[in-house]
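>> received
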Amino acid sequence: PPLTSLAVQRDGTVGDVYGRAVLAATGDVVKDVEQRAAEDRLLCYQALATDLPADGGTARPARVRTTRAASGSTTTVKRAVKPEDRPAKICPTCFMALPATGICDNCD
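>> returned
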């Protein structure tokens, strides 16, 4: 079963990335990625779980989780995670990465 369907974002969805993963793995173009992921998760559960309902369960897309803002309203939070662009500072003497203090633990 497609275990990648089990990897969800903080809001409980798989996002468009899952559609690209399915396309790369199977060649299928997915119109509704959340429904496809739900169906694929069900396949995983049916193959590996021991506590499914007698009917085998049903595929349901995940509900989007929301967070409460300070004002009390409900909003969906989406954040892009970007890798650090700066390379680590290196000690000129021993060529080890420097800690946040900027002082080499090995040389001083």
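>> The first strand starts at residue 67 and ends at 68.
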